Every structure is written in C-alpha cells, then in structure tokens.
Amino acid sequence: MASAKYIFVTGGVTSSLGKGIISASLAKLLQARGYSVTIQKLDPYINIDPGTLNPYEHGECYVTNDGAETDLDLGHYERFLNVPTSQANNVTTGRIYQTVINKEREGEYLGKTVQIIPHITDEIKRRIQLLGETGEFDIVITEIGGTVGDIESLPYVESVRQLKWELGSSALSIHLTLVPYLAAAGELKTKPTQHSVKALLELGVQPDILVCRTEKPISTDIRRKIALFCNVNVNAVIESIDADTIYDVPLLMYKEQLDKVVLAKLKLPLQHEPELEQWKIFLGKLKNPLNEIRIGLVGKYIELKDSYKSIAEAFIHAGVANEVKVNLEWIHSEKIDEQHAAARLSGLAGVLVAPGFGDRGIEGKIEAIRYVREHQIPFLGICLGMQCAVIEFARNVIGWKDAHSTEMNPATRHPVIDFMENQKNITRKGGTMRLGEYSCSLVKGSKVSSVYGKHKITERHRHRYEFNNKFLKDFEDAGMTASGINPDTNLVEIMELKNHPWFIGVQFHPEYKSTVENPHPLFVKFIKAAMEKSRQS
Ligand code: GLN
User: Fold this and answer.
1) Fewer CB atoms < 10 Å away: N or C end of the chain?
2) Catalytic residue among 230, 383, 388, 440
3) Among the atoms of ligand 1, which is closest to the Cα of residue 354?
C-alpha cells in the first residue's frame, strides 16, 4: 500500500467549535468512499493523559481497548467510524515531554542541548506518523487541541508546518473558524476568520481548507471574500452550519463537498459515492421516533453533561434501535435521600446510576437504587453504579447495615467492594487502575446472556475496586447473582437481581463500545425494558 496521507485540523477564534465532530465527519465520508481512516487527537496540556483530570475540567475520560485513558473526542471517532482507537490516537504535551526527557536521561542526546525545535517537534512528528506507518490506514487525520495563537499550541503548529513542507501533496491542513452573525449589523462577519488565518500564516502554515462555523448560511459573496483574504479556493471555504444533532454533520459536510475537496488536494481518487445508507436510516429514525420515554441518569457531575458523554450517546444509539426518543433526566445524586427519592424518581421508565469516584453523592446513589429495586423500575448500574447496587443490596436485603466499599469506608466490617490484591501497593494515581479490555464469561440462563445473545464478551474497564468474592454466597442466597465472571481472575463483572424485571450492574463501561453502527446491547435492552415499564404505568 502507498504511504498514508495526513490531514491536520486546527482551530481558531474560539474553543468549542467542534473540531472533533468535523474531523469525525470528514473521516466518516472518506471511510464511506472506501478509504481506511483513523483520527488522532493531540492535546497541548501537560498531564500525561486525562486520567487524572476531574471530569469538571475536561469532561469524560474515554478508555480505549488497549487501556489508554484519553480525551472524549476519541469517543466521537469510534462512534462515527465504528473502528477502535488506541493509545497512539491521543497524545498530550506531557507525554511528548516525558518521552524526550526520558531519552535525555538515558543519554540519547549526549552532548546536545535538548530544545523545543528540533527535539520536541521531532517527537510530535514521530507520534503523528506512527499511525500512518502501521500500514493500516490510507489517511490519518490529526486534530490539534486548543486554539491557534495559544502559547502551548506553538510546537504543534510548528510540527504541522514542517510536515506539510516534507510531505508535499501527501498532507493538507484544515482550519476551523467562526463566522459570527452580528444581530445589530444584520451581517455575518469574516474578520475573526481573517485574523485567525493570519495568526496561522505568521507561524508558517497556509491552510488549504477553511471550515467556517456559522449560525446562518454563508453566501457566495462571503465565501469569495474569505477565499480572497485567506489564499484558499472558493470551493475550499466550507460552511459548517449549526446542526440539530452531531450525527447530521457528515451529511452537511457531504453537501459542502468537503470530502471531494480533500481528496482532490491529496491527489486521491474519489472512488465511489459515499455509502451512507445505514447512516441515513439511523438519522431518519433519530428524527422520527415513534414514542418517547423518560430515563433518569443519577450522577454527581451532572452540571457538566460532557462528564457522561459516552453514556448520553449510547442512549441515543439505543433509542434509535428501539425507535423511541430517550429523554434523559439528569438527577444530582446529592439531591436524593430517603424523603426525596420518590419525588425525584417516580414515573421514570428506567434509571442508570453512573460511574464515579469518591464519597460525594454516594448515599444518594444507594438510595436511588433502593427505590428502583423496590419499585421494579429497570436499572442499569455502571462501575460505581454497580458497586452501589451491591452495597444497597447488602445493607437493605441481606441486612449488613455497615456494608460499604473500602474506597469510602476502609474500616467497614462488610467490605463488599474492596481493593484488589494486586492494587494494594500502588500509591501513584496516573494509569494505575484496571484499564482497558478484559474478557467476561456470562452465566447460562442469566439475563445478561440473553441480552448479549452469547456467552463470551469483552468490555472495557476503568476502576480500582471490585466485588469481594468472600461474600458472593450470601448475595446469591439472597437473590443477587454474579452473572458475568472474568474467566482468568474469577473477578465478578456483572451482578443481576432475580426478582426484578430488569436489574443489571456491570463493573465495566459498556458505553465506550456503543457506536452508530453497533448500539450496545445492554443499552438497547435496557431501553426495551424501560419501554415495557412505561407501557405498564
Ligand atoms: N471508584 C470506583 C473504583 O475505582 C468506580 C470507578 C468507576 O466508576 N469508573 O473502583
């Protein structure tokens, strides 16, 4: 196979323009034309990875099969492309510097002064080309986090400048900007775009394509004006108008012919028209649901919805699979207690208790689970949500009032959730959890085995604590059974209730694996059970 082509995506004017969605949409179109594409995100912060970041800082931490803790944009890449990403798809400044500094300590640069150019930029360039060199991909899209002009982005833009020069027509750059509408003037304004492109030009990068975020259609005159001031062809000024859903964006980009312009510039054939039939069917169902249901999402980071990005998207996929609109009600776990549980939860068709860390809001999660268990409301507990279901059952059904996870109460006499033996000596925080894909055997005749329709699954993990097998018999005798077990370690991965229409807690994160093409069976069947519940009430 010929060597890979590279597309660099930068952003200007402001953050949050949606570089991730534009990158994923372009990748989708190129994939639908028969190319194999991957997307990489470079993040200019100094953390080695986002694993140590509070979700309020940066939204959800997404986990790949190979156990990398990554930026949530990788979730979009996987949901759009239905192809797994890996550690190589997300690189931070921290990781770049760590590699260079380690090499320096090992004497690799002996005698040399280690500098941003060329040492840091060479490491950035190496990381960008790593995916291309695997031979798996025709096209690698590299999204550069942050906004052009930020001090911390400079080494990345410099690396793009060098690579564009070295790779010639095998590389191009797309710059995403904002064309704001000024109500007072009644006009769209191009000046921020002009300035942003100037900032890039000062750093030596001439963008080949401009994608302009806008709330109103961009006229031909305005496109001409932008083209003239920014040295790009008129057909390379792409309008990216606000959309109802992120899943519209690939089709909007197709209308704007972004894929055609890209392929022409990379000197690649158009191959065939993009095969987007499945995507269009998905969108049709998304926009024309036959019904609606209310699902509660109980968590403690709900002020920032990005903290639960993959869960919210998995619900969209599962809603489409059931042709129902899932109205998520975000419920703060700190606002639930015995008195308020009914007011907050009654009438919901299903409740999901979210993953999380630490003590805050834990009693509210447990109380919410008591309510749904007693009221036969379908329940899906993810990671900490599953652990809370175990604690609730131990306290209120088995009768161990002090049952807890040793994460919250190290002194409990009933540590039903406990630290794993091999984690006990770990004191460092970054990258030390049980991370990534592990296999799980499903018990024959269990609810989960019918949900998945098979007996062997693999799912992604991100946690330190586990169900304590010492207590398993007590749970099973009382009606909560371990229906998914890790065949290699015997760790419990799934708990379910016998006397309940649909009550499943999973130690792993099914939400990371749900894509447009492959909605996750746990979410699909949970919504199905919730529809059943709402028909009854
Ligand atoms: N805090 C729990 C643990 O570390 C659960 C983690 C999670 O929900 N991702 O085991």
Assistant:
1) N
2) 383
3) 8
Q: What angle do CA 482, 483, 485 make, to 5 degrees?
A: 80
Kindly report the protein residue whose alpha carbon is nearest to atom 5 of ligand 1. 384
Q: How many whole angstroms separate alpha carbon 454 and alpha carbon 476?
A: 22
Closest CA to 241 of 194, 331, 301, 179: 179
Could you tell me the distance, in angstroms and rounded to a whole number, from the CA of residue 63 to the centre of ligand 1? 13
Q: Which of 76, 119, 317, 509 is catalytic?
A: 509
471 phi/psi in degrees, rounded to 5: -100, 5
Residue 509 a catalytic site member: yes
Task: Assess whether pLDDT exceeds 80 at residue 389.
Answer: yes
For the full predicted model, state whether its pTM sits above 0.85.
Answer: yes
Torsion 264-266-269-272 (CA) sign: negative
Q: What is the spatial distance between Cα 125 and Cα 481, in angstroms, rounded to a whole number?
A: 51
Cα separation, 157 vs 141, in Å, equals 15
Per-residue pLDDT tens digits for 31-42: 999 999 999 999
| Distance of alpha carbon 201 from the chain centroid | 32
The verdict on whether 511 is a catalytic residue reads: yes
Q: Which positions ≥6 away from 287 have C-beta within 8 Å?
A: 244, 245
Alpha helices in 203-257 (DSSP H): 220-230, 249-255
